Amino acid sequence: MIDAxxxxxxxxxxxxxxxxxxxxxxxxxxxxxxxxVFLAGGIAHAAYGGxxxxxxxxxxxxxxxxxxxxxxxxxxxxxxxxARHRADAVVGVIWxxxxxxxxxxxxxxxxxxxxxxxxxxxxILAVPAAELAEMAAVAALVVAVVAAGYPxxxxxxxxxxxxxxxxxxxxxxxVLMLALIxxxxxxxxxxxxxxxxxxxxxxxxxxxxxxxxxxxxMMVRASVLSALFTVSGLLLSYALDLxxxxxxxxxxxxxxxxxxxxxxxxxxxPVQAG
Length: 274
Fold this sequence. Notes:
By secondary structure, this protein is mostly helical. It is 80% helix and 0% strand. Helix 3 packs across helix 10.
């Protein structure tokens, strides 16, 4: 491990993994508790259109991808708030259109030959210092917003109707939550790729749920688990010369299997509000 950390790209990869872990623990908990994994998946796949747009226009990765991801999140929020029974179909359309638009825009980029695997399965070993700064800024923003709005997110996550009666702006918080998911997805894609992003957003919170008595505790434990999976997967991929993003998810999947076995042998209580 010490030898690996002597290389700059490995240090960048480790830092990127830790930043992503923090975001996945916090936002992934909200995704799991609010049961919106499908929406998060739709945002992630629609974000591919942003990747294609950034490449086509020569924009930085974050600018193009974040813009499209936020637009997709806004569209999904509008649909799910006004016509929930139509949500699945609309999310599916946004999902497909985003992916298709990204591919076509990359095809139309003059002289560009895209390595699609790096976007589909991540390229954590190729994260430059400039993008690390952007990832840190996004991670800090996400954590700060969730911390500031924690009472509202807590109320919305467990009893939205009661929260609405008590004057909590549930609709606004819901839109904000989807926007935070969009921002989180953009930086997670850089590490594990589009195909695997949902696994890293959901597996650590799912495991943490069995060992947490509050939403805050679930976020902390999910962040720690995500960091453990990310660092372990990164080092394992380096040692065995494997694709980093896929290896990280397989390590997380092993943890998921262990959690399922634990739940079967030692049934625990679900996470409680607090």
